[in-house]
Amino acid sequence: MIIRIFQVVTRPGKEEEFGKFFHETAIPLMKGTRGIVQVIPGAPRLDTPREFSFVMVWESLEALKAFVGDDISSPHIDPMEAELVESRSIKHYDLVEG
């Protein structure tokens, strides 16, 4: 299994608008995506008010590629999200089951 950590920093002043998109669109979309075993959404904290994240566990690299394409380092961006986001980061790891 593959862990994909997707982090977003919103544009200044867009926190509330992105928060609405995050809760109403992004979380349901990711939870309903084929190939995802688990979705753990992360909302901002007081010390990082513009940062949102997703930790996703994908059943396989092939399932992830079916969603994002062959370049897994590129973000899958909803058009509604594009104008609200200043930066994104993506990291991938192999899941270690313990």
UniProtKB/TrEMBL annotation:
Protein name (database record): ABM domain-containing protein
Signal peptide start and end residues: none
Organism in which the protein naturally occurs: Ruegeria denitrificans
Family matches, as InterPro entries: ABM_dom, Dimeric_a/b-barrel
The ABM domain, residue ranges: 1-69
Annotated TM spans: none
Pfam families in the record: ABM
